[in-house]
Design brief:
- This protein is of the alpha/beta class and 292 residues long.
- It has 14 helices and nine strands.
- The relative contact order is 0.10.
C-alpha cells in the first residue's frame, strides 16, 4: 500500500527535523518555508517545494503545519493563495503548532465545508526527538479523521494520544504550558529572592530537591541559576506567546487565571527587557535585577 503524500509548512527546528524523519521513512514531502536553506535541505533529500499554500495543498493527501502562531496559521489557510483554496476533498490538515482553540475550531469548520478533515496535534519533547520520530503528540479531532492519519503520526511520535473533539489538543497543550511556564517563573524567582537574601543558591536547590517541589523543571532552573547552563530549549518569547493564548482561552471559557496573569506579566517584562530569545529559565536574570 502506497504511503500518503504530504505537504509540510514550517521548517523551524521542530518542523525541519520532522520532515527529515518523514523523508527517511520513505514519504514524498512537498515543503514551504521562508528559509531557503531549510527548503534546500529537504530538496536535497528528494523533496519538492511550493511557493504558496494553495500550490502545496493541491494533490497532497495530508497537509501538515508546524507554525509559531494562530495568526500565521490563519494567514496560510485563507486567501486566494491559501491552503483552503487548494486542498482537495478527502485530504486532512494537521496543525502541530500551539494555537488558540477557538481559531482551530473555526478553521476546522471551514475545512469540513470542503470535505476536508482537520486534526490539531501539538507536540511535546524536543527537536532531537522529532528527528528520530519520538515526539509526544496530543492529537484531537473526529475519530475517523484521526484514524486516517494515525499511521503517519505514529511514525513521528513515540506516544500519540487522541484527546477528543477538535481543539482539545491545543487546549491540553496550553494547559500543560501554563503549568510548566508558571513553574519555571516561580522557581527562577525563588533562586533570585534567595540570592538577594544571602542564601546560597546551590544550598537552596539541595533543600528543595529533596522535597515534593523536585521536578525536571527545577533542574532546568537550577542549571541556569546555579550553573549558568541554559538547556531547556524553549524561549521566553514562545512562553510569553503561549501564556497569552492560555489567557485568551480561559477568557473564552468565561473564567480567569490570576496565576497565569502574574506569570504572563513577568514573561512580558522579561521580553521587553530584551531577554525574549533566551530560554525560559533565563528569566532568572530579570528577577535578579528586579527592584520594587
Amino acid at each position: 500500500m502506497s504511503k500518503p503524500t504530504i505537504g509540510f509548512i514550517g521548517l523551524g527546528l521542530m518542523g525541519g527535523n520532522m520532515v527529515e524523519n518523514l523523508q527517511n521513512r520513505g514519504y514524498q514531502v512537498t515543503v514551504m518555508d521562508l528559509n531557503k536553506d531549510a527548503v534546500d535541505k529537504c530538496l536535497a533529500r528528494g523533496g519538492k517545494a511550493a511557493s504558496t499554500g494553495k500550490e502545496l495543498a493541491q494533490g497532497n493527501d495530508i497537509v501538515m503545519l508546524c507554525l509559531t502562531t494562530s495568526a500565521i496559521v490563519e494567514k496560510v489557510m485563507y486567501g486566494d493563495e491559501g491552503i483552503l483554496a487548494g486542498v482537495e476533498e478527502g485530504a486532512v490538515v494537521v496543525d502541530f503548532g500551539t494555537s488558540i482553540p477557538a481559531s482551530t475550531r473555526k478553521i476546522g469548520a471551514d475545512l469540513a465545508a470542503k470535505g476536508v478533515g482537520m486534526i490539531d496535534a501539538p507536540l511535546g519533547r524536543t527537536p532531537a526527538h522529532a528527528k528520530d520520530g519520538l515526539l509526544n503528540i496530543m492529537a484531537a479531532g473526529d475519530i475517523d479523521t484521526f484514524n486516517k492519519v494515525k499511521p503517519v503520526l505514529e511514525e513521528q511520535g513515540e506516544n500519540v494520544f487522541h484527546l477528543g473533539a477538535l481543539g482539545a489538543g491545543h487546549t491540553t497543550k496550553l494547559v500543560n504550558n501554563f503549568m510548566g511556564m508558571t513553574t519555571v517563573c516561580a522557581m527562577s524567582q525563588a533562586f533570585a529572592v534567595a540570592d538577594r537574601a544571602g542564601v546560597d543558591r546551590q544550598q537552596l536547590f539541595e533543600i528543595m530537591s529533596t522535597g515534593p517541589s523536585s521536578s525536571p523543571f527545577m533542574q532546568f532552573c537550577k542549571n541556569y541559576a546555579v550553573d549558568n547552563v541554559s538547556d531547556l530549549g524553549f524561549s521566553i518569547a514562545n512562553a510569553n506567546k503561549d501564556l497569552g493564548y492560555f489567557l485568551q482561552m480561559v477568557e473564552d471559557l468565561g473564567t480567569r487565571s490570576q496565576i497565569a496573569e502574574g506569570s504572563s506579566a513577568n514573561l512580558q517584562a522579561a521580553f521587553d527587557a530584551g531577554l525574549g530569545n533566551g530560554n525560559v529559565p533565563e528569566i532568572f536574570d530579570y528577577f535578579l535585577t528586579l527592584n520594587k
